[in-house]
Amino acid sequence: MVMSLEYLKTYSSKSTVTVYKWALSKFLSHVGIKEGSLEERAKAYFASNRNYQEDITFFFTSIKDLPPKSREAALAGVRVFLMENGVELPALFWRKLRGRGKGSRALMLDKVPSNTELKAILMHMDAKGKSLFLTLASSGMRIGEALKLKIDDLDLSSDPARITIRGEHTKTGNPRVAFISSEAKEAIQEWLKIREGELETAVKRSARFPKEGKDDRVWPFEDNTAYLIWRNAVEKSGFAKKFQYNNGTERLTVHPHVLRKFFRTRMATVIPVDVTEALMGHEGYLTEVYRRYSLEDLAEFYKKGEHALLVFGNGKDLAVLRAEVEEKNKQLQQIINGLVSENLELKERLKRLEDGFREVQELKKALEEAVGKKS
Question: Bigger pLDDT: 190 or 94?
């Protein structure tokens, strides 16, 4: 067997590659192959005539106390490694293995913040953090998607403002359009005013940035920086409650990923669920929603639900104002329709009068001609 890790180059997501490498390294260490580069260790594994099912089972027992998502990722990374190198284990084996993990799942105590709580958190952020997390909360996009956005992907002149998420940056590989709230748009505009200066400062402070400081992303930093901004703000705001996995690992109940839940719970109460799911980038809804609705339709749906996403503005007041405007528009349309109807009626009456006048004129002319002939 010719072993290869070339398949890892086919993944566009750096995080996926990182997770799969981590999983493979952990697996090889657990089966006793610890020396050399990852590729050398992988070659040594296949050269040692292993019992793959026994190795996977042993590996599973060693990671069963990991957080559920980490455990699933580790198994997925190893499974892909084996499959890409010609080792296809029975599907039943994998199902039974996953079944053994039931009961070890931690109680998920994610806390979706209220609009007021989210405001308290954002108040402890600078312009870049506030613009990023307002964008996440009001668009439903993933943090990885947001951090790959380029300035050219923004359309802040539209109402509502639009963001094009490129296919190479989405989880599904398909491009889509997201919308953001008016306050997220304003936050981005304020961030863009100082972005170049902040980037220059970051270049001077850190060797990780290119010397020329060229970075056309809206938020030119990595996810670890984003998570640090969030964690610091959460702690300062007093919402740093944590839950604990079975293995002792702790996690904030209010973490960046709950902003997608924030978007869904708020928006789905106002607009159709399938539209909400499509705006979030869930593949099962995208195709059907894009087939049924135009971007203009989706923009109108978003505008109807935008008030529920506002953090600094008063969403209730905006909803009332929007309802009042819509009611006045309906009343105005009724008046216009009435005037149009009256206008048509007047035109019809005028036409009848003109026709009658024309008939009288023709009759008069006929009489005059008749009288002329008699005389």
Answer: 190
Neighbours of 39 (CB within 10 A): 13
Q: How many domains does the chain have?
A: 3
- Residues 205, 178 share a domain: yes
Q: Are residues 270 and 301 in the same domain?
A: yes
In this prediction, residue 107 has a pLDDT band, given cuts at 50, 70 and 90, of very low
Are residue 41 and residue 155 in the same domain, yes or no?
no
d(CA 39, CA 335) in angstroms, rounded, equals 76
Q: Is residue 304 part of a domain?
A: yes
> Is 81 a domain residue?
yes
pLDDT score of 105: 46
Residue 320's pLDDT is 52
265 and 142 in a common domain: yes
Check: pTM over 0.85? Answer yes or no. Answer: no
- Taking the alpha carbons at both ends of the chain, their separation in whole angstroms is 125
What is the mean predicted confidence (pLDDT) over 3-23? 82
Structural domain span for residue 357 = 325-375
Stretch 224-244: mean pLDDT = 84
